[in-house]
TrEMBL record, chains A, B:
<keyword id="KW-0808">Transferase</keyword>
<dbReference type="Pfam" id="PF00588">
    <property type="entry name" value="SpoU_methylase"/>
</dbReference>
<dbReference type="GO" id="GO:0006396">
    <property type="term" value="P:RNA processing"/>
</dbReference>
<dbReference type="GO" id="GO:0032259">
    <property type="term" value="P:methylation"/>
</dbReference>
<comment type="similarity">
    <text>Belongs to the class IV-like SAM-binding methyltransferase superfamily. RNA methyltransferase TrmH family.</text>
</comment>
<dbReference type="InterPro" id="IPR001537">
    <property type="entry name" value="SpoU_MeTrfase"/>
</dbReference>
<dbReference type="InterPro" id="IPR051259">
    <property type="entry name" value="rRNA_Methyltransferase"/>
</dbReference>
<dbReference type="Pfam" id="PF22435">
    <property type="entry name" value="MRM3-like_sub_bind"/>
</dbReference>
<keyword id="KW-0489">Methyltransferase</keyword>
<dbReference type="InterPro" id="IPR029028">
    <property type="entry name" value="Alpha/beta_knot_MTases"/>
</dbReference>
<dbReference type="GO" id="GO:0008173">
    <property type="term" value="F:RNA methyltransferase activity"/>
</dbReference>
<dbReference type="InterPro" id="IPR013123">
    <property type="entry name" value="SpoU_subst-bd"/>
</dbReference>
<dbReference type="InterPro" id="IPR053888">
    <property type="entry name" value="MRM3-like_sub_bind"/>
</dbReference>
<protein>
    <submittedName>
        <fullName>RNA methyltransferase, TrmH family</fullName>
    </submittedName>
</protein>
<dbReference type="InterPro" id="IPR029026">
    <property type="entry name" value="tRNA_m1G_MTases_N"/>
</dbReference>
<dbReference type="InterPro" id="IPR029064">
    <property type="entry name" value="Ribosomal_eL30-like_sf"/>
</dbReference>
<dbReference type="GO" id="GO:0005737">
    <property type="term" value="C:cytoplasm"/>
</dbReference>
Length: 273, 273
């Protein structure tokens, strides 16, 4: 399907565009089409301001007028995209959310190769290995944005960053942050081909995370939610740091661990300059 | 239903105990019965070691033998609880998880009144206002455990800490941490009736979160996922702190914000002693 600049109203659940958009909630359809969905005026505005205009804009016929929505419509029209008006029920059907936002958009997926990353453009990068929860993935993107990171690198078999859940949890950071996907044996040669310190939260042979000798660009590696990092991945790290664990548990939620570490690195690097 | 010390095998989906246990996935049934479900040998072992023995223990007939499981069985039998053996399919039906753990347990809900909290027993407490996501709630309990907090205080209309999702995300901390539920107008008089510093992450009239004058017991207040804290709640705080936001977003995920702040408070208090 190739969107062309048009404006129309859809009233039927069985409409082919509705079916097409809805199919993008499933990974196999996203991958085949190279498209994904995002919802909400704020998120779509973040996208537009970062240069991502939806190819299809879907608006609820019960929406309130808003200057940002008018700007969004104008941008879609200027880019030759499609603008669709429909009912909240059909929006619910598309996004799977029972209280749908007034707008949703279909975007082209981005290049997620390592080679598009400008490693020296940011002091911090998050790296997640086999991160399986799309909510954790989106939360890590949101943290990347907050600490001024360059982006999130997804190692081995992670959740899909373009899933509706990940995009939602990212609160728009899916559009502001670079995202790369790679196998570990692709990532390590890429990393070692330039500057960059690889840091992991670890219990093995680690120094306290506070005051550790962080260096920019600092790549913060977080492991799988239930298994943590493989031992040889930890061994590859330039620095292994440990966070206090005062209770019975020996680990934090993956997105939490990444954020606590990222804020420490941010503070450490800011004191160096 | 009153569990008595017994051991039996259940093979049918329509068994009344299966239906009863399954009903506890719904909040209204949990509240009526005062019971909740938890899964996994590690989590149930944490519970046992913290003095919480399930009233009903459900074990998969495909489980592997394990010394911790034997200890758990013995504890349930000694406490007069019921031990049930069943198929993985029926365990899936009970817990709603497609790859079920080999064991699950039914526990009595705890006292969640403010009056059971020993505020001076711990240097840090987390306080969440209208936290709606059970995953965030469980993650905050897990963070409480990690920083050696006393527990989590849930203000106004929060997700249920005894939901399957919250218990799962807590990784057992639901059993190690005190949990209280209160309205804001109950919480403030309770807080002001003793020692305690109320701290919020805020953009209004705030000082940098690093190096702020934290005092134990420090109550860290985190607001609702989409609305943040009401202005008058922030005004009640003894200290308002702000975290760097380098990107487009003006907030972090609620569980992430609580954790970054809790680790800073932990570090600050440890330097004071």
């Amino acid at each position: 399907m190739s969107p062309s600049s048009e404006r129309r109203t859809i009233t039927g659940f069985s409409n082919s565009t509705v079916k097409y958009l809805r199919s993008l909630r499933e990974k196999k359809h996203r991958k085949r089409e190279g498209k994904f969905l995002a919802e909400g005026l704020r998120l779509l505005t973040d996208a537009r301001e970062c240069g991502h205009v939806p190819e299809i804009l879907v608006m609820s016929d019960t929406r309130d007028p808003h200057p940002l929505l008018a700007e969004l419509e104008a941008a879609v029209a200027a880019a030759g995209g499609a603008i669709i008006e429909t009912s909240p029920d059909i929006l619910t059907k598309i996004t799977g959310k029972s209280n749908p936002q007034a707008v949703a958009g279909m975007f082209a997926e981005f290049d997620t190769s390592l080679t598009q990353l400008a490693r020296s453009a940011a002091p911090i990068w998050l790296v997640a290995q086999e991160l399986r929860d799309p909510g954790n993935l989106g939360t890590m993107l949101r943290t990347c944005d907050a600490v001024g990171a360059g982006g999130l690198i997804l190692i081995d078999d992670c959740a899909d960053p373009f899933s509706v859940e990940a995009v939602r949890a990212s609160m728009g950071a899916v559009f502001t942050q670079a995202i790369a996907q790679a196998r570990w044996d692709e990532f390590v040669p890429w990393l070692r081909g330039g500057e960059g310190q690889l840091v992991a939260a670890s219990l093995r042979d680690a120094v306290p995370y506070r005051g550790a000798p962080y260096q920019a660009p600092c790549f913060i590696l977080v492991g799988n939610e239930s298994q943590g990092l493989p031992e040889d991945y930890e061994a590859e790290c330039d620095l292994r740091v440990t966070m206090p664990m005062k209770g019975r548990a020996d680990s934090l939620n993956a997105a939490v661990a990444g954020a606590v570490l990222a804020y420490e690195v941010l503070d450490s690097l800011s004191q160096q300059t």
